[in-house]
UniProtKB/TrEMBL annotation:
The keyword Transport does not apply. It comes from the Bacteria. Keywords: Oxidoreductase. Pfam families: Fer2_4. This is (2Fe-2S)-binding protein. The keyword tRNA-binding does not apply. SUPFAM superfamilies: 2Fe-2S ferredoxin-like. It comes from Brevundimonas olei.
Amino acid sequence: MRKTEGVLRGEPFAFSVDGDAIQAYPGETIATAMLAADATGFRRDRSGRARGLFCNMGVCSECLVHVRDGDVSRRVRACLVPAAPGMTVETGIGE
Protein backbone atom coordinates (compact mmCIF):
# COMPACT_ATOMS: atom_id res chain seq x y z
CA MET A 1 0.00 0.00 0.00
CA ARG A 2 1.38 3.38 -0.98
CA LYS A 3 1.53 6.27 1.42
CA THR A 4 -0.76 8.91 -0.03
CA GLU A 5 -1.31 11.59 2.60
CA GLY A 6 0.91 14.62 2.08
CA VAL A 7 2.81 13.04 -0.83
CA LEU A 8 3.23 14.89 -4.13
CA ARG A 9 3.79 12.64 -7.14
CA GLY A 10 3.86 12.95 -10.88
CA GLU A 11 1.13 11.45 -13.02
CA PRO A 12 0.73 7.67 -12.71
CA PHE A 13 1.45 5.41 -15.66
CA ALA A 14 0.92 1.75 -16.43
CA PHE A 15 3.28 -1.07 -17.29
CA SER A 16 2.70 -4.81 -17.63
CA VAL A 17 3.71 -7.59 -15.24
CA ASP A 18 2.87 -11.06 -16.54
CA GLY A 19 0.16 -9.52 -18.70
CA ASP A 20 -1.48 -7.56 -15.87
CA ALA A 21 -1.46 -3.76 -15.83
CA ILE A 22 0.41 -2.31 -12.86
CA GLN A 23 0.22 1.35 -11.90
CA ALA A 24 3.42 3.17 -11.03
CA TYR A 25 4.55 6.71 -10.38
CA PRO A 26 7.67 8.42 -11.72
CA GLY A 27 10.72 7.38 -9.72
CA GLU A 28 9.32 4.08 -8.48
CA THR A 29 11.23 0.89 -9.19
CA ILE A 30 9.59 -2.15 -10.73
CA ALA A 31 9.65 -3.81 -7.29
CA THR A 32 8.02 -0.84 -5.54
CA ALA A 33 5.14 -0.75 -8.02
CA MET A 34 4.72 -4.53 -7.89
CA LEU A 35 4.57 -4.56 -4.10
CA ALA A 36 2.05 -1.69 -4.07
CA ALA A 37 -0.11 -3.80 -6.41
CA ASP A 38 0.24 -6.89 -4.14
CA ALA A 39 2.36 -8.69 -6.76
CA THR A 40 4.90 -10.26 -4.41
CA GLY A 41 6.33 -13.10 -6.53
CA PHE A 42 9.34 -12.10 -8.61
CA ARG A 43 10.75 -15.42 -9.79
CA ARG A 44 10.77 -19.16 -9.08
CA ASP A 45 13.65 -21.02 -7.49
CA ARG A 46 15.00 -24.37 -8.70
CA SER A 47 12.33 -26.18 -6.68
CA GLY A 48 9.55 -24.13 -8.29
CA ARG A 49 8.76 -22.01 -5.24
CA ALA A 50 7.92 -18.34 -5.72
CA ARG A 51 10.56 -15.93 -4.43
CA GLY A 52 10.02 -12.35 -3.26
CA LEU A 53 12.17 -9.44 -2.21
CA PHE A 54 14.92 -10.07 0.31
CA CYS A 55 17.51 -7.30 0.52
CA ASN A 56 15.77 -4.64 -1.63
CA MET A 57 19.13 -3.04 -2.45
CA GLY A 58 20.39 -5.07 -5.41
CA VAL A 59 22.71 -7.49 -3.64
CA CYS A 60 20.81 -10.78 -3.41
CA SER A 61 19.15 -11.20 -6.87
CA GLU A 62 15.92 -12.57 -5.36
CA CYS A 63 13.95 -10.00 -7.36
CA LEU A 64 15.26 -10.92 -10.80
CA VAL A 65 12.63 -10.42 -13.50
CA HIS A 66 12.73 -10.33 -17.30
CA VAL A 67 12.11 -7.01 -19.03
CA ARG A 68 11.01 -7.61 -22.60
CA ASP A 69 11.65 -5.19 -25.43
CA GLY A 70 10.22 -6.72 -28.58
CA ASP A 71 11.92 -10.09 -29.02
CA VAL A 72 14.75 -9.22 -26.62
CA SER A 73 14.47 -10.10 -22.94
CA ARG A 74 16.99 -9.06 -20.30
CA ARG A 75 17.17 -10.07 -16.65
CA VAL A 76 17.19 -7.17 -14.22
CA ARG A 77 16.92 -6.66 -10.49
CA ALA A 78 13.43 -5.24 -9.99
CA CYS A 79 14.53 -3.37 -6.86
CA LEU A 80 17.03 -1.28 -8.87
CA VAL A 81 15.35 -0.64 -12.22
CA PRO A 82 12.85 2.21 -12.52
CA ALA A 83 9.44 1.32 -13.89
CA ALA A 84 8.67 2.93 -17.24
CA PRO A 85 5.44 3.56 -19.13
CA GLY A 86 4.57 0.61 -21.36
CA MET A 87 7.35 -1.61 -19.95
CA THR A 88 6.72 -5.36 -20.20
CA VAL A 89 7.91 -7.41 -17.22
CA GLU A 90 7.78 -11.19 -16.93
CA THR A 91 8.33 -12.99 -13.64
CA GLY A 92 7.78 -16.62 -14.60
CA ILE A 93 5.53 -17.02 -11.57
CA GLY A 94 2.45 -17.75 -13.67
CA GLU A 95 4.13 -20.52 -15.69
